[in-house]
Specification:
rod-shaped; two-stranded antiparallel sheet; mainly alpha
């Protein structure tokens, strides 16, 4: 049999991710953006004498991406996901029988008889 107590039940779906997990996620984003920057700088050097307008575009990306990457990496921890409106779950309500009064023999009233008299 299960022991039933009336203790409160709370949901933890609104909890934040761990700090180490958050830091590793931010580091991963920064490394990916720096890899893209490195590729754009290499493409600038390769394309400079071949396709000058495209080389300018990769140069701009390579120049602006470090700023964007640092802003994204230092943006801080993500907000906790919104928890459901009711974070408190009340215990289930058990159905109960309604209370009734108990009659004693003295309190009972005799029921009228329902006999039909046959006319004979």
């Amino acid at each position: 049999m299960w022991k039933q107590d009336d203790s409160a039940v709370f949901r933890i779906t609104g909890a934040r991710t761990g700090l180490s997990e958050d830091i590793s996620r931010r580091q991963r984003r920064y490394i990916i953006s720096m890899a893209i920057r490195t590729l754009s700088v290499i493409l600038t050097v390769v394309l400079w004498n071949v396709e000058r307008p495209l080389a300018w575009g990769t140069l701009v990306v390579g120049a602006l991406l470090p700023y964007v990457a640092v802003v994204i990496a230092n943006a801080g921890r993500e907000n906790a996901p919104t928890a459901p409106k009711a974070t408190y779950v009340p215990p289930p309500v058990r159905p109960m029988l309604e209370a009734t009064t108990v009659e004693t023999a003295a309190e009972r009233t005799p029921e009228p008889s329902d006999e039909r008299h046959d006319a004979g």
